[in-house]
Write the structure tokens for this entry.
Amino acid sequence: MIVYVLQRLLGLVPVLFGITVVIFLTMKLIPGDVARALLGPMATDQSLAQLRHALGLDQAIHVQYAKWLWRALHGDLGLSPIVHKPVVDLLLPKFGNTLILAGASFALAVLGGVAVGVLAASRQQTVVDRAAMGASLVIGNMPPFWLGLVLIVFFAINLRWLPSLGMYSSRGAGGFSDLLAHLIMPTIATAAAPAAIIARMTRASVLEILGQDYIKVARSKGLSERAVLGLHALRVAWPPILTISGLQLGYLLGGAVFTEEVFGWPGLGRQLVSSVLARDVQAVQGAALFIALSFVMVNLVVDLLNLYLDPRSRPA
Amino acid sequence: MATTSTALTVTPAASRARRPRGALAQSARAFARDRQAMVGLLIIAIIGGAALAAPLVSPWDPLTSAAVERLSPIGTPGHLLGTDEQGRDILSRLIWGGRASLLVGILPTVTAGLIALGLGLLAGYLGGGLDHVIMRALDVFFAFPLVLLAIAIVGVIGPGMDNQMFALTVVLVPYSTRVVRTATLSVKPLEFVEAARALGASGGRLIGRHLLPNVLPPLLVYTSTLVGMMIVASAGLSFLGLGVQPPTPDWGVMVGNGRLVLYRAAHVATIPGVVIVVAALAFNFVGDGLREALDPRARR
């Protein structure tokens, strides 16, 4: 077990290395001369050479990479030329906001998805089952940005129940309840499609278990259907559910970009999009690094959690 | 001894030569019986047909704006689905928009599938160092959520429809390659491949004649389900302003423009979204139908 964990951690090294190389190189591939962009068209050859030297651009590419990596490891991702701020200072608060949205959405997606999936499986081939699976099929194909707009039309414009923009109201005390009110619609929009996929997987997984002999034994000895589901079926069915849920995290983070944009949620995804539109390469680079690292970490946690919870997945 | 071994190796190869046609016909019949898949195919035919025949079926020019008719509601005479913020006919823009929207959904998926076919077959068939290099390189791509990677790539090469398709192709290649490689690895050790090898078949013949026909069905199924997802994803990029650029009609662009007038006329943004959902659903129906038709184990 410990050996496997160590192997898994060691396996991360080449992936992390690859991520930094890819991010570094893609930024180098951008057409145009950085020094000329900074100094303008009137710059002399001598001043261009001086600046290139000062920025280290005249060094070999692997030296540049090593220096960039060294600085990145020390939390220095450079300066955003658009907002005139260190990229780390720009991204860190946004990252926290995205964590709030992603965390709430993930919780909703897993809870909602598993609940609907179990319900559908326990009422197999009934109206409930068909309605739940039909709905999950449609919801699973909804673009999150469109679902967000539909929610705004209903709950912000027509019913006036919920705020449609930002994290806090510009007026009023703010606080946790205000945050919660702002969080509801973005969370639903982000969670909907992953929840639909989790629901379908849960149903399939539970149904497979319900067909097994030991479930028949449990039923024939007179256990209630609730006990059969809760005590026997779910305990075995849920490792694959966990794996699928973990896989949905990437999907969820991708979806969060759109909901952040639609609901004006000041997160990393929204920052990424506005940096892309502003051609702020430093910030795009930083955001890509943030996203990739957190995604790798999340996948690691899911893997290890699975290992801990499901003895069958452990290597002999 | 020699005769028995020849008999053993020839029989599976000979039976294979007959089997594909029968299996294909059987799969085609299973697919045709699948009502859901047929509905999906019908929807795709209608949307795709309308997009192709847009100059003939579109009631208005998709770019002509009429200031006096701005934001007409659904059911306005002459404008079945109303007009947008510039007074352009929404139905006409939906029909024309199908061209860009379907293209950016389908073309990257198919291109990525073809690249993946080459990479996956090579990695799976040759194995060893090349396999290791290809798969580790692709592992790096799995470290990024798909849509975010596409956005970052567009960030580097700049917004626009061509760059959008390029970015989507790049992010899809690792996923499809994994499918092809897995399928290759599962077929490679089977007896009929061994038999063909023992008969002296060349590497090219082994891949083309024996591995390819067995790798194509899972890739086809995977690609068809990806198309639905990519229609949603590419609409998202266009919605953000990173893909298809206005005034070119596109479903994602339409939702993005409609968002600006959401408080005054919600239908401008919501109607194109419905079309995106329906199109994505239709491709998923077809994908599910293909899966059940091509994989006997999945048949109901």
